[in-house]
Amino acid sequence: MDVFYLRVVRKRLLYSDIVRxxxxxxGRGSKRVLVxxxxxxxWVIPYIVEKLKKSVNVVVSSDPCYGACFVAYDEARLYEAxxxxxxxxxxxxxxxxxxxxxxxxxxxDPSLAKHFDEVGKVLRAFNRVGVVTNVHHxxxxxxxxxxxxxxxxxxxxxxxxxxxxxxxxxxGCDYSSAKEVEADVEAFLFVGGGTFHxxxxxxxxxxxxxxLDPYSGRAYGLEPLKKKxxxxxxxxxxxxxxxxxxxxxxxxxxxxxxxxxxxxxxxxLEKHAKSFEVLVVDQVVPxxxxxxxxxxxxxxxxxxxxxDDAAIFKKPMLLPKELLVAMGDKSWxxxxxxxxxxxxxxxxxxxx
Length: 352
Ligand code: SF4
Prior knowledge:
alpha/beta; Rossmann fold; 5-stranded mixed sheet
């Protein structure tokens, strides 16, 4: 497995990066390459494919691809591709991808300096600040730290994650870089677009979380959204308390395959005299679950389905550790105190 990058400058890919990545791939002597990217980065694919197909046969996956856990091995096998080009995510440290996968990260360069007055306002009450970001901005951590120092703050960046590839990087199911420095900081600053990562961070730690969206220039605190999501989680758990029949969702993708956790969830349900069936799912979406009689689901595949998408499912969708609260073995207050997403994958194998 190799990791390359493409830089985006003023909304365009740097041509020299495209040439470098394509040369690397052609140099591998592959006969056919399968290319995949998340929906938000599918615009990158034609730039690569146009050049690549002059030397190599190419097939493109149109399927969604939510993380580095979604590497398209099955599609590659079916269409006889000997190499998978996975664009937009960094690899997961705990996954053995083999030699047939190349990751291409997409690095963006929004201006940070012009928004720093806003950052200063939200961080006014804090001095020691933990700094985290997503894969698209990890190369900006140095600059970010300098700007914070110039504003009189002491920035602290954690190491790489248990799953996350880079120092100071967080992903939807791994906030260990932040956990590592939590005791040393008064608050965290996340830099990047959208609320997905900073919300996850706020559910993994107890310190206040702030975010700078460098595209809109907005700096904001996560507390209101965290409260809203915790309320939704509480309601889901309360509903699950009345359920007797559970579906244990088991991921079908390489980075969502957790047989040990599935076994523990099943043993735990059995201990509580609940009936259950294990359902292998590629994507956890409502239409895949309608035909089953389960009254509630426990998702071992991706913790963000329960946290971000619970409202689209008619039946309760729980994290494995929330099951402890539903069965009366842990208090809701203790769960909130330790953080819903505080362990790797949002799950802890030892909790059940
Ligand atoms: S398990 Fe979910 S949060 Fe983790 S990398 Fe995969 S899609 Fe992202």
